Amino acid sequence: MTAADRPALIGPLDTIEVDVFGIENLSREMQVDASGRIAMPLAGTIDARGKTAQELAAAIEIALRARYVRDPEVTVNIKSSVSQVVTIDGQVVEPGLYPVTNQMTLMRVIASAKGLSEFARQEDVVILRKVGDRKMAGLYNIAAIRRGAYEDPPVYANDVIIVGDSPQRRLFRDFVALSPLLASPLIAVLQ
Questions:
Q1: Tens digits of residue pLDDT in 9-61
Q2: Among 59, 76, 112, 141, which is disulfide-ready with 98 (CB 3.0 to 4.6 Å)?
Q3: Could you give phi then psi for residue 106, rounded to 5 degrees?
Q4: How far apart are CA 141 and CA 48, in angstroms?
Q5: Residue 130 to residues 102, 109, 116, 155, 171: CA-CA distances in angstroms?
Q6: How far apart are CA 13 and CA 81, in angstroms?
Q7: Where a domain ends, among 56, 80, 104?
Q8: Are residues 145 and 68 in the same domain?
């Protein structure tokens, strides 16, 4: 269940920093509105939703050129993202939504949730992910990751992580009965 290194996408209510080289009064920090758009002097209203920082910078450059700004150089940085989150539920100290970055892994998300609860089932951690139109589930064992049996898997925006027994975990019951000592995570396609 690997996904290529996905660049962060801009979403509604994210805070971005737009820098227009050489034009101080156009450079600013701003929040993307609820419909996914930004408004800038000279550039007008631009749809930012679902674009990478580089794609939005290119769109701003095109809009500025249309308003006779010569050779604009624009850089966009995502300062804070509310749309790029992962959900962690189950036997962790603080279940909830946590922001994800490109370097986010399962162990880091569990650490963000203040760790596993006292009697958490370390061998029962499921990551649910949508890849295209397919739903996938991966069963991971935290103790095995800590021992170095396999890599700490990356997590991505919109993943749902469930620690402990869950309906999704039960899908793996037959596999686990056959192979009690998992040397690698189990992956299943749900649809």
A1: 888 888 999 999 988 889 999 999 888 899 999 999 999 988 999 999 999 99
A2: 112
A3: -55, -45
A4: 38
A5: 17, 18, 25, 12, 17
A6: 8
A7: 80
A8: no
